[in-house]
Amino acid sequence: MFRIQKAARVAENIFEIWVRAPHVARNAKAGQFVVIRVDERGERIPLTISAVEQDSVRLIFQVVGKTTEQLSRLVEGDEIRDVAGPLGRPSAIERYGTVAVVGGGVGVAGAPMIAKAAMEAGNHVIGIIGARSRGFLILRNEMEGCCHELHVATDDGSYGAHGFVTDILKGELNRREIDCIWAIGPTIMMKAVASLTRPYGVRTFVSLNPIMVDGTGMCGSCRVTVGGETRFACVDGPEFDAHRVDFDELMTRLRTYHREEKEALLLFRECAAREGGR
Prior knowledge:
CATH superfamily of the largest domain: Nucleotide-binding domain of ferredoxin-NADP reductase (FNR) module
Largest sheet: 7 strands, antiparallel
Distance between the termini: 19 Å
Shape: globular
Strand content: 25-35%
Order of helices and strands: EEHEEEHEEEHEHEEHEHEEEHEHH
Number of strands: 16
Helix content: 25-40%
Number of helices: 9
Structural class: alpha/beta
Strand order of the largest sheet: 6-1-2-5-4-3-7
CATH architecture of the largest domain: 3-Layer(aba) Sandwich
Radius of gyration: 18 Å
């Protein structure tokens, strides 16, 4: 069992937990993830490793279904059944020159480790993060500490620039040369970043979030099309060349179980209410 060291709500419908997992903490690198299971009857879900502190890892998630709702109700001292990882290939960190790390929504969770590793590799790091509104914005202070400069946007203008992260990124691309870009966030946002950077010829990585089950490449549920070939995000990724990803196919596959996801969440909440909240 893996003990929860800390748990908190960090934004609207977004939560963080620090889980004691020494093996993961010792070996985790930027861009990797874990697959967790809350209890022996629970489903497996992938979560990006957002930070490492001694023998614990931070996981940040948005409540979208039964398992993330269950996670959001955990408190310090609770335990979860499985934390498998670190999984996936680490981010392709090199000394590129000037790089941008772009995060949107809960995807900002994966940005600090990439930004910090890029800075340690000798790059000038531009951070660009965004959210729907101020209430959904996460890790702003932390990103300030691991970037040479940070730009913030909100869709409604309630904090930072009024607009999207792509608006800020376009301005930066027109103002100076950027050698490499990472984008982590909603699939539609990553598709927009890929479309923006393609004409500039800037190397762009995206961290894909397909449906995933075992995290070892055996089940095939995480398959994505990259450069016309089938790849498995859990072992070949999750980071891929943004300009080669079939985003339309990915978005279609991500919608496969939306109805079942909503039904499971509703049933869990009904059962929890009958049992006294947890």
